[in-house]
Amino acid sequence: MKNTATRDKLIDSGAQLISQQGYNATGINAVLKTCGVPKGSFYHYFSSKEDFGLAVIERFAASYDETLVVLLEDNDTPPLERLKRYFAAGREHMHECDHATGCLIGNLGQELSGQSDTFRDALNLVFQRWEQRFVRCLQDAQARGDIATHSVPEALASFILTGWEGAILRAKTLKSVEPMEHFEKILFQQVLVPAT
Amino acid sequence: MKNTATRDKLIDSGAQLISQQGYNATGINAVLKTCGVPKGSFYHYFSSKEDFGLAVIERFAASYDETLVVLLEDNDTPPLERLKRYFAAGREHMHECDHATGCLIGNLGQELSGQSDTFRDALNLVFQRWEQRFVRCLQDAQARGDIATHSVPEALASFILTGWEGAILRAKTLKSVEPMEHFEKILFQQVLVPAT
DNA sequence: AAAGCACTAGACTGACTGGTCTACTTTAAG
DNA sequence: CTTAAAGTAGACCAGTCAGTCTAGTGCTTT
């Protein structure tokens, strides 16, 4: 397996289509057509549609994790500023896709975690990695005294991730980033505040 | 259209299967098989699968709204208690379905709002109705001085709904109600609090 | 030059999809 | 009793699904 260009093309097209339509609604033939790759190549690189789906998740997670590191682990910026930057990037992405795709991992989590344990495990791992990034950022904030220490960072991280994913979902059905703004505003006004 | 028993059976089976597997993964034949209704009857009551899906949403929303009224508009119980009861009911349901189905409207919102505007509109309306129930409950709480008045109830309601939906999604991938508990705890500890 | 392997190419398969069609049974009205 | 409509019944359709198969191309190694 030397020529990874074709494999990458397949994963790229797949990620795009799955983001837009979901996993079940995306046929292999549609993926093939959008990137002009014959079926033989597909089954040369992937053993099944599930295998392909997992590869799409893996690659998205890896590439997204890079962004996350840049946004959340930049020690030159105060931790709460980093979080705000993260939310701003999310809102911008929502605009760019016309409120249609949202978060690939969130979408697949909703669609597939009741359908396949393999997918559920893979998606769960991605979520947990994200939470860890939040945890580190929140620990920084607590160490600086920017936020109170009476909530454990892990619980706060879970709160932020779930709230944000829910806001993305709501933004999709509403076709507006308003829910994302509400979430962010209340979060910074009442949750991520110094000890009183 | 007098005999609604068959129609109801179809919608019931449909709601169950769609909750478990999603809309796209649920075939009409599967619905037919689980309730022993022939195809002719299906297309007698519904003009298409989409029409059927909308009927499933409508009926679920109507029945769920009844529960919501009982839980959230009971004036004999303090408003924040009503909200806690609502969350407790949600957690219980999550246990009952073994963390597999979650919220039908949330699932379909994620799966279909990028796929069909008709579905998106229908689901959005349901969400908005739910938010209104929260708004009324929060207004009661503000009137009693149980929570501060510096947040508009509409924004708070959006915050609660999105946070809760996100927690449900996360609970599904994690197979644990822990995210729902984290959300509830932080919400009542830091957001739904009296003016300081 | 030859052999072996990574990869391309797409026709093909059986199962299944949403949806149509015709025939039949039941119910209600005149 | 007759007739029309409501509803049941399932064979059938064209299209699509994931996946298989065989044939061939082009690069690398010996």
Automatic annotation (TrEMBL), chains A, B:
UniProt-recorded Gene Ontology molecular function terms: DNA binding
DNA-binding region: 27-46
InterPro entries named in the record: Homeodomain-like_sf, HTH_TetR, Tet_transcr_reg_TetR-rel_C_sf, TetR_C
Pfam families: TetR_C_13, TetR_N
Lineage top rank: taxon: Bacteria
Keyword tags: DNA-binding, Transcription, Transcription regulation
Keyword RNA-binding in annotation: no
The keyword Isomerase appears for this protein: no
SUPFAM superfamilies noted in UniProt: Homeodomain-like, Tetracyclin repressor-like, C-terminal domain
Domain HTH tetR-type: 4-64
Protein known as: TetR family transcriptional regulator C-terminal domain-containing protein
Organism: Vreelandella sedimenti
Upper lineage: Bacteria, Pseudomonadati, Pseudomonadota, Gammaproteobacteria, Oceanospirillales
